[in-house]
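Data deposition worksheet. Section B asks for the primary sequence of the deposited chain exactly as it was used as input, without tags or linkers unless they were present during the calculation. Section C holds the resulting structure in token form. Section D is free text for depositor observations; keep each observation to a single sentence. Incomplete worksheets are returned to the depositor.
Section A, Depositor: J.P.
Section B:
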Amino acid sequence: MRTRLLLLLALTLITAACSGGSASNPIEGELPTASPEEVAEFVRADGRPAVVNVWASWCGPCRSEAPLLREAWQEYGDEVLFIGVDVQDTQEGALDFIEEFDLGFTHFFDPRRDVPAAWGGLGVPLTYYLTPDGEVLALHNGILDERGLVEGIENLLAASS
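Section C:
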């Protein structure tokens, strides 16, 4: 499992480096499926605190907050790891959503909702703030607004320093 996560991390970093920093879909073909433990291990392997957003392509509020997440990733991406977790969806819907909103950060596929089942929270969207050791520091249920997202990120950075 650790080797698989390190390979995913390396692939993501190589893709980002090769894209010249532009926001584009980092995964061609299909999103990798990951358990809550694998997502937490991915965060630990990266070493940065993380914003983990749980979304679905059919979710109206998820579509509303996607541009905000893209902007936050562009602003805080050097300090904070951004991860999307697509739940109860299709691979095609997930990839179309990522392309439509130009979400160039790492995404995982979670068709059974294992991440929210393990970490708590109802519905979608959900946003988790994880410490660099992969522990959930905070959870935001529902749609994010700019003020709440920035506050969550600033609190995460303060707790992680």
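Section D:
Residues 2-19+26-160 form a domain with the Glutaredoxin fold (CATH 3.40.30.10).
Confidence is low (pLDDT under 50) at residues 1-26.
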